[in-house]
Amino acid sequence: MFNLISRFHLLLLTVLLSTTIVAFLRVPADFAYPAHWGAHSEPDWLWPRDLALLGAPILALVLTIKFALLGALLTKSRLLQSRHIYQPALTLLLTVVGSVQLGLLLVGVGSDLDFIRLTAFGLAGVLLIVGVIVAEAERNSYAGLRMPWPVPGDRAWRFVHLVTGASFGLTGFALALLSWFDGTIANLLGAMAAALLVPVAIAGLATAIALVVRVRPERT
């Protein structure tokens, strides 16, 4: 395969593209997705079918290409050390995108199953678990956050992982609350995107702060 792109990733991509084709065949061309509801429970934001259905496959293709290029640019040793992080990350991203596309298909054919909300709940659970794992991780050479710059010292490494773990956990908790109290498609999609991006941004910021501040190592 393409270093970071496994057969399972290609399978997820194929399922997503197949779901998209089925959606275009089954959902009427003039159908508009109610993305948001106003104060009187009436749709005040509609997405045209074509625009709504093309977003997921385009995003999935872009993600797959980016991870393939990343795998090609990494050295062999760096690839072996970080593959266990990048491959599950791509699997999670493609699964979320594919689940959203399936949810759009179900909405378009009139199903009562709110699969997009279920996807948001599932992602919230994954983020909570990731948060605990990252926060409790001990420093080693093969697991943990992988950044372009080194983390200076054991204490700094611990600080970065606690901050990152907390951000994953809080983001997952916030997404679960939103999924319970707000089922609008636009809000859920935006929240899921933020839930995937914000903890990563915080992780990068935490490592940069640790590098600049040079958290002093623990005394022995």
Short description:
The protein is mainly alpha-helical and 220 residues long.
Strand arrangement within the widest β-sheet reads 1-2
**In sequence order, what are the helices and strands, one letter per element?**
HEEHHHHH
The DSSP helix count reads: 6
Tell me the Rg in angstroms: 20 Å
The counted number of beta strands is: 2
Characterize the largest beta sheet: strand count, sense, and whether it forms a barrel: 2 strands, antiparallel
Distance between the termini: 46 Å
Mean pLDDT: 83
**Helix-strand makeup class:** mainly alpha
Stretches where pLDDT is under 50 for at least 5 consecutive residues are none
Present the secondary structure layout.
Blueprint: H1 7-26, E1 32-37, E2 43-48, H2 49-73, H3 76-108, H4 115-136, H5 154-181, H6 185-213
Antiparallel strand pairs: 1-2
Helix pairs in contact: 1-2, 1-3, 2-3, 3-4, 4-5, 4-6, 5-6
Structural overview:
The chain is mainly α and 220 residues long. The protein is built from six helices and two strands, in the order αββααααα. It has helices at residues 7-26, 49-73, 76-108, 115-136, 154-181, 185-213; strands at 32-37, 43-48. Strands 1-2 form a two-stranded antiparallel ribbon. A hairpin with a 5-residue loop joins β1 (32-37) and β2 (43-48). α2 runs antiparallel to α3 (76-108) and α4 (115-136) runs parallel beside α6 (185-213). The protein is globular, with a radius of gyration of 20 Å.
